[in-house]
Target: UPF0225 protein ACFOM9_10765
Amino acid sequence: MSKLASPPCPCGSGHALDACCGPLLATQAVARTAEALMRSRYTAHVRGDREYLLASWHPSTRPATLEVDDAVRWLGLAVKRHVQSAPDAAVVEFVARYRIGGGSAVRLHETSRFVRQHGRWYYLDGTFPDA
Ligand SMILES: [Zn+2]
Model:
């Protein structure tokens, strides 16, 4: 794929995929912030990249396996809040929208916790403010 043809990143950052989540998913770069990791995990969902989702999940909360539903189509991401609560801890609140098959759009509102270990950010867990 040529640089000129690099598509916009699915995470909605406004950057090209090659200049945003692409290098993270290709394990050529490490997320510098929890928000960058969160965005890359959204892009991994869009691409059905199960391996990346597991690798970016903290080992203490990581599931043994991960089901990715092929019928899910991700529609967009909006990051609402990114708070670095400690040197190695951060919270990212976001809304992601998706559709299953021909169903109506579903709104996923999550506040996720992230921790940094050995210079790498990991997803820890999430709560759902609307639930
Ligand atoms: Zn991105």
The longest helix spans residues 34-47. The domain at 17-127 is CATH 3.10.450.50 (Nuclear Transport Factor 2; Chain: A,). Helices lie at 22-25, 34-47, 50-55. The beta strands are 72-86, 89-100, 106-117, 120-127.
